[in-house]
From TrEMBL, chain B:
Keyword Iron-sulfur: no
Cleaved signal peptide residues: none
Residue span(s) of domain ABC transporter: 2-231
Keywords: ATP-binding, Nucleotide-binding, Transport
CDD domains for the chain: ABC_MJ0796_LolCDE_FtsE
This protein's name: ABC transporter ATP-binding protein
Molecular-function annotations in GO: ATP binding
């Protein structure tokens, strides 16, 4: 094999300009393909891939009859009263679910008593205790709060906030200040794998929660509602006030701000979804007698998978670029075939000499395969380097597009190639290059040697 | 060693059929030195290509060491070419990017000979052609005659049963041609069968036996006839 490699290397070096052209041509195609492939691959990933079918986002559409949802990510969150009804039904076991959690997006400034760190302007979520287990939030330190602590002065920090406030040390048991109130840190989570902020179905890839506070504490202390909060026309004028100050009014208003997630059993998914659907239908029908739920679609139940599929459909431009990258790669393969054929013409004499000296057709194919693999390897390595540069440029562009307000680590994750993806892509590219190269390789092995060796 | 019975070769295009060889019968014994002469287009090169298993034929039988080559696969034919036949071309056909050592090594690699044995054979064959000290030189650094000697060394390194030389001195000046011919004769004296195609009747006279190809037909001719032709 070493000798065959040596001979193939000699062949590879012949007509070096054509060889270089072939490699440059492949590098361009591979770079673009890997860059766009990575972006699409990373965007399509979910930190909750094992729960895509069992996590269901629930919505009771209290909005006006003419409300236009536009797309599945603009599904109205629950009003306070509907969330209460759902929670009561769950507690009363009227619906069988593995778990049910609520959250709303809020923001606050986190400070330290001793001012040892700069105050942190954080967006976070108000959640109930079941949220953490349901979302598999990975705890670096501590744990979630208990079921009887949904109104306690406690907080779970994300790693980014913990790094900022406590220099990454274990902050469990320490205190932070929010609105002049002390909250004890009970846990630190690392959401770096969560490239999308899916809990409030914004699927933002710019930033994620910096902290989590208990739902009842947040409502009791009037932590603002900063996420998507649609209101019925009759309450629309009150919306700014309901967002910021009037939590009492919010509890009776027709404004949705609570995201409800149900986790159904993986063994009994459909039956539990059906049961949940039935409850939502009955509830909205019962409420319609009170003049509510006039919309033609009174409720929505959407799996996390469906929401991810929706996100994928939104990536029109990325998919156009990916298809363009596929097309360009196909063109580079055609070019490669052409360049290999041109190389064959130039070295027909060498192949003929090899045949005269005793190389059989299979050996010629083997030499050419090794030679092609050499070229493909160099092209793939350079393509991978090119893709890393391409991804970095795309990351910078993405940050620029969002006026640098995104969390760099989270945004960069979408533009980072992981080794397994790179390996799979490299193997696929090897395979396609080899397939494309078969025709010129077989053609080279069929050169009639006698005609080339005269003179 | 080599037996051809009624060999015919036809080149076909859409419009015309060319009978390059017609009913060739030839027997070559071990250790012979045969010169093949004939005018341009008479079929000399086709004859040499068929003898060297580089071309197939339409009719007849070709026995190489008793083995009917028409029945053999490409792999088997390649093996025979590698082990039993040494080629010497008019244009030398050395690989410009390889030094002399590597050039001679190529057929030995195809045979799967180990590195140590290859080294021994390459050094021996280079010594035999008088280029033992130039193993690391590249073909472009040598004269035409030296390049042809390298080609001979490459053919000899495989210890072939016979050498096929196609106008081996065609690209050389008189002095170099004489040196190369003397080398070939010496190789033949040491027992290697030699079949040489040449236009040069003077060179052909050095062979033990002369055959002439005319319009695809092969016939033995006497040396005196060659002289007459030369005159």
């Amino acid at each position: 094999m070493k000798d065959a490699f040596h001979l193939a290397w000699q062949g590879f070096r012949q007509k070096s300009k054509l060889t270089a052209l072939m490699i440059v041509n492949l590098v361009i195609g591979i770079t673009l393909l890997l860059t766009m492939g990575t972006i699409i691959d990373q965007s399509g990933r979910s930190a909750m891939s094992h729960k895509l079918d069992v996590l269901q986002h629930l919505s009771l559409n209290f909005m006006d009859a003419e409300f236009d949802r536009r797309h599945p990510l603009r599904t109205p969150p629950l009003t306070y009263r509907d969330a209460q009804a759902l929670s009561d039904a769950y507690e009363a076991k009227e619906i069988s679910l593995q778990s049910l959690s609520f959250n709303y997006t809020t923001s606050f400034v986190i400070d330290l008593d001793d001012s040892s760190a700069r105050p942190l302007d954080a967006t976070g979520s108000a959640v109930n205790h079941r949220f953490f287990e349901m979302m598999n939030t990975p705890f670096l330190f501590g744990n979630a709060w208990n079921s009887n602590m949904d109104d306690a002065n406690v907080i779970v920090l994300d790693k980014k906030a913990n790094d900022h406030l406590f220099a990454g040390t274990n902050s469990v048991g320490k205190f932070v200040m929010i609105n002049n109130q002390q909250l004890e840190v009970v846990g630190v989570v690392d959401l770096s794998q969560h490239t999308h902020r899916f809990q409030n179905i914004s699927f933002s890839n710019r930033n994620n929660d910096m902290a989590f506070v208990p739902m009842d504490y947040a409502l009791a202390n009037n932590l603002p509602r900063v996420g998507y909060m649609p209101c019925m026309t009759k309450d629309e004028a009150l919306r700014p006030e309901l967002r910021q100050t009037n939590v009492t009014g919010l509890k009776s208003a027709e404004c949705g701000f609570l995201h409800a997630w149900a986790q159904v059993s993986p063994d009994n998914t459909q039956a539990q979804v059906d049961e949940l659907t039935l409850w939502m239908r009955n509830y909205t029908q019962q409420q319609s007698t009170l003049g509510r739920f006039t919309h033609s679609e009174p409720y929505y139940i959407q799996s996390l998978k469906l929401l991810h599929d929706t996100i994928y459909r939104f990536m029109d431009w990325e998919r156009v670029y990916l298809n363009f990258a596929y097309l360009l790669f196909a063109i580079t393969l055609v070019n490669t075939v052409g360049i290999l054929l041109a190389k064959n013409q130039h070295r027909a004499k060498l192949v003929s000499l090899y045949r005269a000296l005793g190389a059989n057709r299979l050996y010629i194919v083997k030499l050419q395969m090794i030679e092609l693999l050499l070229g493909a390897t160099i092209a793939i390595i350079l393509g991978l380097i090119g893709a890393q540069i391409g991804l970095y440029v795309m990351y910078l562009l993405a940050m620029y597009q969002m006026d640098y307000v995104g969390v760099a680590e989270q945004v960069q994750r979408l533009y980072s190639m992981d080794m397994w993806f790179a390996f799979k892509a490299a193997m696929a590219i090897y395979f396609t290059i080899l397939i494309a190269g078969l025709f010129p390789i077989i053609a080279a092995s069929r050169i009639a040697p006698a005609s080339q060796l005269r003179g | 060693m080599l037996q051809m019975n009624n060999i015919s070769k036809i080149y076909r295009t859409d419009l015309v059929e060319t009978h390059a060889l017609s009913g060739v019968n030839l027997s070559v014994e071990e250790g012979e030195f045969i010169a093949v002469t004939g005018p341009s287009g008479s079929g000399k090169t086709t004859f040499l290509n068929i003898t060297g298993l580089l071309e197939t034929f339409e009719e007849g039988q070709y026995l190489l060491d008793g083995e009917d080559v028409s029945q053999l696969t490409d792999k088997h034919l390649s093996k025979l070419r590698n082990e039993k036949i040494g080629f010497i071309f008019q244009g030398f056909n050395l690989i410009a990017d390889l030094n002399l050592y590597d050039n001679i090594e190529v057929p030995l690699i195809f045979r799967g000979i180990n590195r140590q044995e290859r080294k021994k054979r390459i050094e021996e064959s280079l010594e035999l052609v008088g280029l033992g000290s130039r193993a690391s030189h590249f073909p472009a650094q040598l004269s035409g005659g030296q390049q042809q000697r390298v080609a001979i060394a490459r053919a000899l390194a495989g210890k072939p049963r016979f050498l096929l030389a196609d106008e081996p001195t065609g690209n050389l000046d008189t002095m170099m041609a004489r040196q190369v011919m003397e080398l070939l004769q010496e190789i033949n004296r040491q027992g290697t069968t030699l079949i040489m195609v040449t236009h040069d009747n003077e060179l052909a006279q050095r062979a033990h036996r002369n055959i002439q190809i005319l319009d695809g037909q092969v016939s033995d001719i006497a040396k005196s006839q060659l002289t007459d032709l030369a005159v």
